[in-house]
Amino acid sequence: MRDPLNEVQLEGRVSMNPQIATLLVKKKEISYTTFILEIDQKNSEKEFITVSFWGEKATIVLCELKKGDWVLIEGRLQYPVSNGQSHMSIKGDNYLALKGYSGKSRD
C-alpha cells in the first residue's frame, strides 16, 4: 500500500540518458532504470535528483525518454545510503513526457 504522505510530483529535464540494469532477487530477474532529473530553482540554482523506475515501466522509460526531454515525475522520496552518504532520490511510479515544453516559467 502506498503512503499518501510520501507522494511527490517533480518537473524537470532529463540530464542523462536512462540506463537499465538487472538484479537477481530470489532467482528472479528484476530490471530497473535510472536517470538524473535536473530541476531549475527560482534562485537560478539547479538540483539534480536520481530517479528510478522498476519492472516493466523501466523498459518503457528506457525506450521513451532521452537526455534533454522535459518530464513530470510522480513517485516517492527515498534516501538511500551509499558510502555512508545519504542523498534524496525518487522511486518513480508514473511519468508524463512534456513534448514541446521548453521549461520556461509559467505565470
Notes on the protein architecture:
- The chain is mainly beta and 107 residues long.
- The protein has one domain (4-97): Beta Barrel (OB fold (Dihydrolipoamide Acetyltransferase, E2P)), CATH 2.40.50.140.
- Helices cover 8% and strands 54% of the residues.
- The protein contains 1 helix and 8 strands; from the N terminus they run E-E-E-E-H-E-E-E-E.
- The chain has one helix spanning 56-64, and strands at 8-14, 19-25, 28-40, 46-54, 70-78, 81-82, 85-86, 89-97.
- A hairpin with a 5-residue loop joins strand 3 (28-40) and strand 4.
The helicity comes to under 10%
Order of helices and strands: EEEEHEEEE
Low-confidence stretches: none
Mean pLDDT, as a whole number?
82
Structural class: mainly beta
Distance between the termini: 36 Å
Number of helical regions:
1
CATH class: Mainly Beta
Strands ordered across the widest β-sheet: 1-3-4-8-5
Strand content: over 45%
The rough form would be described as: globular
Oligomeric composition of the shown chains:
single chain
CATH superfamily: Nucleic acid-binding proteins
Count of individual domains? 1
Beta-strand segment tally: 8
User: How is the biggest beta sheet arranged?
Assistant: 5 strands, mixed, barrel
Summarize the entry for a quick read.
The protein is built from 1 helix and 8 strands. By secondary structure, the chain is mainly β.
